[in-house]
């Protein structure tokens, strides 16, 4: 494969990632809106069991809404990075500032962190929202 063919393939790949980001933004926006509508529905059923079931469903919806909202925010940031150019798009927004692997961007076009920084971010979020972190320390 010649250098010209490789450059053409890279440009086609970058254009495909841009289209994928646009599609993801539309899909994530729709999903967030739908989940918000479902969450806004009142919990009023004919009996306590039905109300408990609806409350459990709302809990699942809230979890999904949080995840979808995070992915939408990441997709919006990724799109801004993409619009800034391929090098900006492929650069990790974490502390390392390294290149995000092509394999990761192919799998998760809205990725704004490399795998290592994403793992650190996930760990931070798990620690921040874990039940243990919400308990006040014992002064004894």
Search tags:
mainly alpha, Four Helix Bundle (Hemerythrin (Met), subunit A), disordered C terminus
The coarse overall form would be elongated
Beta-strand content: under 5%
CATH class annotation: Mainly Alpha
- Tell me the helix content: over 70%
CATH topology: Four Helix Bundle (Hemerythrin (Met), subunit A)
Mean pLDDT: 82
Number of helices: 5
The structure class reads mainly alpha
CATH architectural label: Up-down Bundle
Q: Tell me the number of structural domains.
A: 1
Order of helical and strand elements? HHHHH
In angstroms, what is the radius of gyration?
20 Å
Major sheet:
none
Number of strands: 0
Name given to the CATH homologous superfamily: DksA, coiled-coil domain
Kindly report how far apart the N and C termini lie: 70 Å
Low-confidence segments, given as residue ranges, are 131-140
Characterise this structure.
By secondary structure, the chain is mainly α. The chain has one domain: Up-down Bundle (Four Helix Bundle (Hemerythrin (Met), subunit A)), CATH 1.20.120.910. It is built from five helices and no strands. Helix 1 runs antiparallel to helix 2. The chain is elongated, with a radius of gyration of 20 Å. The termini are far apart.
Describe the protein's topology.
Layout: H1 3-40, H2 48-83, H3 86-89, H4 102-107, H5 115-129
Helix pairs in contact: 1-2
Provide a short characterization of the protein structure.
By secondary structure, this protein is mainly α. The chain contains five helices and no strands.
């Amino acid at each position: 494969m010649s250098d010209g063919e490789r450059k053409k393939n890279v440009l086609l790949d970058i254009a495909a990632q841009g289209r994928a980001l646009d599609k993801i933004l539309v899909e994530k926006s729709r999903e967030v809106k739908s989940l918000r509508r479902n969450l806004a529905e009142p919990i009023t059923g004919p009996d306590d069991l039905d109300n408990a079931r609806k409350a459990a469903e709302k809990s699942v919806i809230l979890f999904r809404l949080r995840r979808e909202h995070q992915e939408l925010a990441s997709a919006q940031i990724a799109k801004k990075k993409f619009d800034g150019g391929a090098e900006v798009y492929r650069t990790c927004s974490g502390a390392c500032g390294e290149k995000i692997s092509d394999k990761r961007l192919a799998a998760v076009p809205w990725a704004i962190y490399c795998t290592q920084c994403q793992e650190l971010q996930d760990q931070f979020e798990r620690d921040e929202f874990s039940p243990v972190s919400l308990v006040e320390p014992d002064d004894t």
